[in-house]
Amino acid sequence: MTEAKAWRGVAAEYRDAPAEKVSSLLRARSRRLLADLLRPHRRGIATLVAVIIVSNGAGLVIPYLVKAGIDSGIPPILRHEGTGTLLSVVGAIIAAVLVQAYTRQAFLRLSGRIGQDILLDLRRRVFGHFQRLSLSFHQDYTSGRVISRLTSDVEAISELLQAGLDGIVNAVLTVFGTAVLLLILDVRLGLVALVPLPFLWLLTRWFRRESTLAYRRTRETVALMIVHFVESMTGIRAVQAFRRQERNQEIFAGLNADYRDANARSFQLVAIFMPGIKLIGNVTIAVVLLYGGLLATRDLVTVGVLAAFLLYLRRFYEPMQEISQFYNTLQSAGAALEKLSGVLDEVPDVAEPAQPITPAAARGRLRFDAVEFSYAEGVPVLPRLDLTIPAGQTVALVGASGAGKTTLAKLIARFHDPCAGRVLLDGVDLRDLGEDALRRAVVMVTQENFLFGGTVADNIRFGRPGAPMEQVVAAATAVGAHAFISALPDGYDTRVGQRGGRMSAGRRQLLAFARAFLADPAVLILDEATSSLDVPGERLVQRALRTILADRTTVIIAHRLSTVEIAERVLVVQDGRLVEDGTPEELIAQAGRFAGLHRAWLDSLA
Amino acid sequence: MLTETISTSQGGGVPRGLDRGTAEHGGRHPRRPRLPAFSAAAALWRLKSYLRPYVIHLIVIWLAALLGTGAAIVIPLIGKEVVDGPVARHDLAALIPLGLLALALGVAEAFLLFLRRWTQTVSVLGLETAIRDDMYRHLQRLPLRFHDEWQSGQLLSRTTTDLSTIRRFFGFGLLSLVTSVLQVVVVTAVLLGTYWPLGLLVTVSIVPIIWLSLRFERRHLVASRRVQDQQGDLATLVEESAIGIRTIKAFGRRAHVYAGYDEMARKVHGSSMAKVRLSARFSMLLEMIPNLTLALVLLLGASAVGTGVLTLGTLVALTTLALQLVWPVASLGYLLAMVQEAMTSADRVMEVLDTPPSIVSGTTVLERPRGHLRFEGVEVRFPGAAEPVLRDLWLDVRPGETVAVVGATGSGKTTLTALAPRLRDVTGGRVTIDGQDVRDLTLPSLRAVVATAFEDATLFSMSVRENVTLGHPGAGEEEVRAALEAAQATFAYDLPWGLDTRIGEQGMSLSGGQRQRLALARAMLGGPKILVLDDTLSALDVDTEALVEQALRRVLAGTTGIVVAHRASTVLLADKVALLRDGTITHVGTHRELLAEVPEYRELLSMDIDDLDRVPR
């Protein structure tokens, strides 16, 4: 980031902040990824090279043929020897034009196809990899960043593949081909025409360096502006309620001006670069005209050669202008590739077993065998835990936030692996179970109750894709969601708003329960989040819970104690240890920590 | 020519994911019906006032563009003179001045190009920046009602993508359109005047190019929209899979989700390929036609030279000029599409700027407010809704008193909280503070008297200090400390960089309780007389709730308060309770009174498990 502004405050930078070294566009792992992506297209790329050489050759030959037409076609006509030579030259030009046109189309299609195939491949890889990476990764790597990897970064590469490469390949081939042809046409004039090349190179090099910096600055400033804009708009209630408009305007105007200045810098660079190329080109043309004219007056070159030179020089300088775009595209694609290869290099820390065990239908007996767990080294969350939960038991985990309840639950769902010890389901280590078997047996309903786009039925069916409608309805009925679903405009076919926006928290939770019920796992973990519900909503959920709990092992993380009454067993967790264990009645009678919590809860009900 | 547009479009630097295609995809388009072409053109025309500061710049730009085009046309004609004069007559002396003239013109053309681009930078970026500042200012003034309807992504795409389109139009499109047409006309005229059969040939060859490029632009637009839409769908899938990752993992539905993504990605692949094929075919034709014309020009021209109708120099000049026409002609379709696009963008920008801010400031300033808040027969009806959200609502909150508002979901609680600070206006009745209608008060003075803390503590990606002093940029260190202490939020001093620590989305993440307490501190700063709290306790665990509750108790002690409550514990903070039902207040009394007398109230607040019909296990 550039100069810090006081209002923004200080924060640790992202771990995917752009690499500091500007010049190293591609680091080793990006190169590896690139090679990997290109490998399946080796033959296509070889064909592409052949096609583009033919195409450019045909294009380059045209001015040469124009020269031939002028120099060899006209004299016979003047001598009244007929138009045969001219006609054959024109015929050759038409042939060259057709070859060029056809190969050009072939090139564009082939390169387009390879590019799109690579994009598809990249999308699949990155998406699949994100899905494979464990939750601890996703916790750090926010969803916003996952989204921008898969949208703007992939599109940056797509931009390069679509527009950038075609232009640069053409420019390079044209420059080299033209240079060679000019020298063949006439060595003296050719050398004069090529004198400006070093200047061209210097100008381009200067532009590349500067525009790389300017481009990055533009991205940074626009990102800041967008963040501020979006936050102001999404938080407009607070903005208006707290008379924030003036200060916001001040900040926004500053960011907007920064963005303008950054943009101005890159525009000015182009404003120097493009006329610079033009200047070199025009001066060269004038010099060639002068020198060529001089040679022509002495009959040292023909008029045809002079004409060909003028045609060639135009073609020579025009593609140069394209280079000015290419660096921006390359720059952002390079940065994108860097980030994407970084993601693909992440190793899922919850690994699939090499030889997964597929047990018969799980019964749901859970055992923690000397389990230790910590997120960061030296800060144990669970110091050492031994616990057995018989199949079919309903257990409530109680304790302050940070005591380790959620960690315990996540270990059962294998969102994390223990650092030491084992978690066993029906006597099998979770790490030996295949993903499918594990997820069939253990389902965790989180606090988020995420609803996907699509219909209500789709969302319930997420628990078991392909389940017939009757089962969906049965699941909804079992958790008490059928009534409200039927009352929706299109019943089960009602589309939920984006991210379930049109459902209240209570209804979302019921749908999540229906989903879990349909999945019918042997072990169900509920990170109970009734706290965000109002009382009638909570009551609905409580009722649903009882249906869901029947006949399966259930672990409930209880934030509020209203759930505890339906549990057969309560575990009080404190600093990662089980400090109390018993039925609710026993614990209340013991006058321990649970009894205290229970009393406080009764009081809060007033 | 085309390269120039690519550069300007990328200079905009708008993250691609936020482009119109994805940002607005799937969202509602609250657009009013408009007469498309006419009003869109009018919208673009209305933006001209933003160009006023740059009149001199504009004159320079246009002069430079026209002179530059002239130079580009004249240079090949010098080539003709060279061939026909000095070369044909072996006259070395005549060559020098012609060569120097070509040199001078070449340098002039480059300089004019530089002058145009450099001057443009200032004016078009100034234009873009000024419009953006104005849009932001305007959007901040527009009421909640407007923001309810518009997703921030839509607003963003209008202030970034659309403004870039407009900037490109004023900076490049309009100018290129005029110079291209001019160049085509002048060069054709020169060709026709020099040797009419050649001129005619070139003119005829232009027609299919124009036709093709117009046709291409149309089809390309359709193809691009399709790709954009599908990319939007793909982005939605990505978003879902990223945000719902826990759910996906919990049910082990990786393969299922991947299959859905894969299918959509293939669709994008398919329609991108269609676009590639379209472009390939078009650029093939675009290159073929001028080159074939060149062959015919040579055939015709060389024969003419052979029969002495044409000089050799003229032939050379004409071939060069004919080639010069390719781009201006081919880009016409593209440029016209750009005009269309700019008009649409201008229309979208004006649509925002034309929305009148319906909540305007009054004139009265409350001197020494006491904080007596009254709702007198208030009605709120959302536009287009059959039923009012609030109706005939009466409530009297005396200075220093705290009233809890209790009601079922959808009873209008949140709407009620927006009325006192005038985030919304009533559609009937009135809200008064110390007897003054809130609509008569100046907005700054009203919002200094009424402070609000919302259900979701909105934190911005800024320092803690900036977040807390939201409405009081000038607040001193002592004031901030006092507010933080009152709200039990002194934890802020222990953050890594103290009050300078950046929080919010882009900074340090705080727990729900910490966020709530900061929001409270923010409301407390500046000592408001009236405090409106939308149940800020809902997302907290028991321990944190106790902390926040304690803070609330202190905060509410000295101010008039309205607290929207979902739970009994919050209700107990208030002196009395108002029951909101179907948009009106049906009962007012103490918690115990209502609990004893109103069954509906009991239904809402009593969590007694025995009320539930137990399901036998």
Fraction in beta strands of chain B: 5-15%
What is the number of strand segments of chain B?
Answer: 10
Alpha plus pi helix count of chain B: 22
The string of secondary-structure elements of chain A, in order, is: HHHHHHHHHHEEEHEEHEHHHHEHEEEHH
- Which strand order does the major sheet of chain A show? 6-7-8-3-9-10
Quick synopsis:
The complex is a heterodimer of chains A (606) and B (617). With 606 residues, chain A is of the alpha/beta class. Chain A has helices spanning 28-38, 42-78, 84-132, 135-140, 143-185, 187-194, 197-234, 236-241, 245-297, 303-345, 405-412, 435-441, 456-461, 469-478, 482-487, 505-519, 535-549, 584-590, 593-605; strands at 366-376, 379-389, 394-398, 420-425, 428-429, 442-445, 523-527, 553-557, 569-574, 577-582.
Output the keywords:
heterodimer; A: 606 residues; ABC transporter transmembrane region fold; Rossmann fold; 2 domains; 19 helices; B: 617 residues; alpha/beta; six-stranded mixed β-sheet; 10 strands; 62% helix; elongated; ABC1_TM_sf (chain A); ATP binding (chain A); ABC transporter ATP-binding protein (chain A); P-loop_NTPase (chain A)
